[in-house]
Design goal:
Low-confidence stretches: 72-78
Distance between the termini: 178 Å
Number of strands: 0
Mean pLDDT: 85
Structural class: mainly alpha
Order of helices and strands: HHHHHHHHHHHHH
Shape: flat
Length: 385
């Protein structure tokens, strides 16, 4: 038998609490949306028919796998050939003080990707270079005196390429593409190849592919093919004649003299850098405009379109000449018909007028006869009386 529990008596100084001054807000029904990591975990457990323990074990194993991949610097597809490019002796002898002259993509082994390299690929390439050239790994080994300097070059390349603004500035003056700009085909390269249409697209297509990376607007129309319709060709040149470029030249700015604390030196250097950036930007705009002008003059599609327009005008002219003779003949026949109708109308009017005049004359004659009869009758009456 259970022992009854006796509650203690209330204290003498206890009073029933007063009701709150503010009323309690009414109950509101709210709809909860199935979302969040807890819900997703619940869905995975239900779909895979896992208990809580089995699910936790699976999550732990997956995390270990990801940690192992991160530690090894491997990431499937992104790791294919990244950071494994051959290093030339000249590359290993780079001076970290001249870091602005170095090719950061080449330093990290990303020459084959350059501006197309992803942030993950840059991290993987950097990790490989660090493991290979870290000074601690070369300590005590002969003929490795420059590894410390090249390691600084690696770090500087990583700093530039992982900073969005600095990377954009470097991509604007990438030495690899600057060399290609110097080798852009000129009009003289196309002499004697007026009929070789494939040569034009082979030479100029890659040029616009490279320039497209500077466009603020996307998508960027490419050079296309020989059989493109007029609308496509016009859209291409309209885009490139109004090209909006994000390319800048801050990367080539001169640094203030090391150790100088003079404000005047800093202001002078800043003004000079600003002037140089504006000059380079203007020159680049003119360069691109000249490139588009040259392409327009050499484009076989423009020649084809002009020929088609000429043929259309001539055909229209011929059709107009043929139609003019027919129109003149039709006009002459129409005028003849109208003249005949007018003559017939006038003849009918004259005939009607003659008939009316004849009728009026007969009426007048009858009236005169009646008048004479009446007069003779009156005279006869007068004589008889």
């Amino acid at each position: 038998m259970a022992t009854p529990i006796v509650l203690p008596a209330l204290p003498r100084n206890w009073h029933e609490p007063a009701s709150p001054a503010r009323s309690i807000s009414p109950v509101v029904r709210r709809q909860l949306l199935p979302a969040g990591p807890a819900y997703l975990a619940h869905v995975r457990r239900v779909i895979n028919k896992l208990s809580f323990e089995e699910y936790d074990k699976q999550v732990e194993e997956e995390q270990k796998r990801l940690d192992a991949l991160q530690a090894d610097g491997l990431n499937g597809e992104d790791d294919l050939g990244v950071g494994d490019e051959k290093e030339s002796p000249e590359l290993l002898l780079l001076d970290p003080k001249e870091w602005k002259k170095q090719d950061h993509y080449q330093v990290l082994g990303l020459s084959h990707l350059r501006y197309k390299a992803t942030s993950e690929q840059i991290k993987i390439a950097h990790r490989k270079k660090v493991l290979k050239h870290h000074p601690d790994k070369k300590a005590g080994i002969s003929n490795s005196t420059n590894d410390d300097a090249f390691f600084k070059c690696i770090q500087k390349a990583f700093d530039v390429l992982t900073h969005p603004e600095k990377r954009r500035q470097f991509d604007s003056v990438d030495p690899y593409y600057l060399a290609l700009e110097e080798d852009t085909p000129t009009a003289s390269d196309f002499k004697g190849k007026d009929k070789d249409y494939d040569f034009f697209f082979k030479m100029m297509g890659p040029v616009f592919d490279r320039e497209a990376r500077f466009s603020k607007r996307t998508p960027v129309p490419m050079l296309g093919a020989r059989d493109d319709p007029r609308e496509t060709v016009e859209a291409f040149y309209d885009f490139w004649y109004n090209f909006d470029s994000w390319r800048s030249f801050e990367y080539l700015d001169k640094e203030v003299n090391e150790g100088s604390d003079s404000r005047d030196d800093k202001r002078y250097t800043e003004r000079k850098n600003k002037t140089e950036r504006a000059r380079r930007k203007k020159e680049d705009t003119v360069r691109l405009r000249n490139l588009v002008d040259q392409t327009l003059g050499l484009d076989p599609r423009i020649k084809r379109i002009k020929q088609e327009e000429k043929e259309a005008r001539e055909a229209k002219k011929k059709n107009k000449a043929g139609s003019t003779a027919a129109e003149l003949k039709a006009k002459a026949e129409e005028e003849k018909r109208r003249a005949e109708e007018e003559a017939k109308r006038k003849e009918e009017e004259e005939k009607a007028a003659r008939a009316e005049a004849k009728k009026a004359k007969a009426t007048a004659a009858n009236a005169a006869k009646k008048a004479r009869r009446a007069q003779r009758a009156a005279e006869a009456t007068a004589d008889g009386s």
